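Let's sit down with a protein and look at its sequence and fold side by side. We need material for that, and I hope you will provide a protein of your own picking. Once you have written the record down, we can walk along the chain together.

***
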Amino acid sequence: MENPFKQLDQPLKEVPSELKAKVMHDVAMAKLFMELAELFSYNIGHIIESVQSKRQKHN
């Protein structure tokens, strides 16, 4: 079995432009989905903090 760490010293190879474009598109789509999920979900940390602060004010 070949040691994969020996390949780290080798010069970098150019990535095909089609593959680079596909990866960038996939990253952009993932970022879009994350932003949409953030828009339509509750910020749980903020909710917990607000509930705790309201409870402390009433006590």
About this structure: Residues 17-57 form one domain.
